[in-house]
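As promised in the previous annual report, we have extended the structural survey to additional targets. Below is the entry for Glycerol-3-phosphate dehydrogenase.
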Amino acid sequence: MIRADAEHTSNSCDLLVIGGGINGAGIANDAAGRGLRVVLCEQHDLAAHTSSASSKLIHGGLRYLEHYAFRLVREALAEREVLLAKAPHLVRPLPFVLPYRAHLRPRWLLRAGLFLYDHLGRRQQLPASKALQLPPDGPLQPDIQHAFEYHDCQVDDARLVLVNALQARQQGASILTRTRCVQARRVAGGWHVELENAAGQRLFYQTSALVNAAGPWASRLFAEVLHEPAPHRLRLVRGSHILVPPLVNGHHGYILQHTDGRVVFVLPWDGHSLIGTTDVDHTDDPGSVVATEEEQRYLLDVVNAWFKRQLQPADILHSFAGVRPLLDDHAGSASRTTRDYHLDLQGQPGQPPLLSVFGGKLTTYRRLAESAMQRLRPWFPAMGADWTANSVLPGGDILDPEAFAGELRQTYTWLPAPLCLRLASTYGSLCHTFLHEHKSLQSLGRDFGEGLSEAELHYLHDREWAVNAEDVLWRRTRLGLGFSVAGKQALGDWLAQR
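The corresponding structure token record, generated without further manual editing, is:
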């Protein structure tokens, strides 16, 4: 096998990955790092759907212990430590408060669950759980006096996808956004795959192996692209979130129990409180999903049952929803459906393989990608060994965003401190790419708002596949909430000219 150049001169590859969410990007990155020639196609933008509409957590999944998902929780707990080291600019430790009320889960059950949470996986950087006595002047209702504290991690989910795609490209993969797979069929020695880009151009690839990482479209791809029945059914479950003014001071989250047995998170997010999520079966198009009024009311009711400050619908600044493509295990309720993943491999040695990803969660994407490559090894016996556990993702060669922001302030003394922190926590060391040639704030070019400069936009357009204002504001920079209508229009116009 010969490593590909950044752009393939011939339309042939070893592995073609369909889907640019976290699993597709993770598999493409892992495969490219093993020396395979890789192409990834995504019908929309990278992380355009489920992978940018999560609760922004890297976590073991405390509530999954109730469903005896010990293997999944153990794997996810271990991955917290791995991802903290791989992407310290995107993955940050986050303490959680789990308040206790006697009529919900008993105290012994919470203690037992947290004991397992502390000991099931490797825990090197994150502290152990502990009991808390809550002060009467705290943000919670006055009858809540006891709680527990434990630690998980928070992540910029969309950028985690982005940096995996960036690293894949650095290692020779071709990343084709706004390019959908319209047909794939087995031929002698591999797969013949037909793609169509946003301009209507048809691209043809011959690939040795095909990976279906289409997320919510994984089952539909069998009928529409492969023209054969899907081996498994997906249960599409909608998870909705709302963003409100900050409910608490400080950088910590809350995990709130509800009388229906579910839990709801209240998380710090860019100076606001992010509240989620719901578990509702979704039967409509996974590409057009919104948080319904009923779901938003549900989230408000849960929070109001625990917090002194009572939220109203008018407090909702923004809402979003994503569709989780869960493996249908015929669980009675959506919230009980497994969050584990299943890799379905079709094809015997000597036949071109098709590997399909069903289910999965953000936290375990790297292990999923490793498992996928292990399943494909019989077809690529010369490929490299596992490598992603100890490899830093692009921009992650820093200690932490705060320390790196201080370094930026020393290097670029003309940069305002708040902008240094935003760039550090968004790009890590990658921000040097568009800063190093400049000597003043003015030389960065036009400021479109919130410190978003032309220099940064050139980088996002040229290096990170950003095409429109939504790509930039919601999946590359997290600046969407603070942008004016006029600013969004100006930004869109600038990008359209490119």
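The longest strand covers residues 202-212. The chain has three domains: 12-49+159-233+339-390, 92-154+235-332, 401-496. These points will be discussed at the next consortium meeting with the crystallography subgroup.
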